[in-house]
Amino acid sequence: MKSALDWAETARANGRVDQAIEAASRWIEGFLHRRFYPEVGTRYFTFPDQYARPWRLWLDDSELISLTSISSGGTVLDPATVLLEPNRSGPPYNRVELRIDTNSAFGSGQTTQRDVTITGLWGYSADDTAVTTAASAINSTATTLLVASSAGIGVGQLLRVGTERLTVTERTMAPTGQTLQQPLDALQKTVTVAVTDGTAFALDEVLLVDSERMLVVDIAGDQLTVKRAWDGSVLAAHTGSAIYAPRKLTVTRGVLGTAAAAISQGATVYRWDVPGPVRTLCIAEALVTQLQQSSGYARTTGVGSAARQVGGGTVAKTQYGLSIESLREQVYTSRGRKARVRAV
To answer: Does the model's pTM come out above 0.85?
Structure first.
């Protein structure tokens, strides 16, 4: 969002971005009728004796990614007798079915209420990507995690190390252990940064040299090609300066039903990936919110089909986020949870 708006790195700007993204995220959950992040937990359901198919249990808004255990009336059911459906397109799974060629059955308790207990991973998807490794070991109570690279990790993102999930609440600069191997002058055309070990850096990582930020756009051996004066910083000359990168993460441990555990040095850090269309819509909604606020919710989007003729001239018609209506429709079609008709 900050890249789209070309905003410099400031605490005030970060706060506004956080608020806009939070509002957009919650709106999208309501609009699409589902939550996308993976959460470990136990949920309870009324057994389906009132339905036409007593072996089928609809999960409704509690979509399942994977099943850990299931019981009915305190009786544990064999997972081998449980089918997660729809098997051709899930996860997420919107129902569980008991194989009708087995003796497993729902409704063995004294009441229908909360008779079925399901423990598993809930949400839309658990797709994640390995983005870096832990640069140092930490115990289960530490809230600061040093990583080998900050590219692809931002504030608010959901990470996974082993079975533990963590959320990033802040990202600050940390020493990379390297210094400039050649002086840099204060010219925009000087874009080559010589380092000791180029493999310790990653594309799209932001470096801090003295008070100037630089964006890494290419790496050739131990030569980094950068964009100077990045993120609102000031172009300056540097000689033998230490190189910093935003690799110090402040994290919330053991989130979404997981337990905090010790993290060893070199452990792989995974980033949970929001489905592409949903991520695009979230950024777009956050942008609209921010731009509408700055214009008092009366922003003019332009002329064309939205214009009207007055006295022989063209007058722009004020619109309210109309430019992303098609995006909303596309995302709802591809990722929204639709209504269904239940047999009774």
So the answer is: no
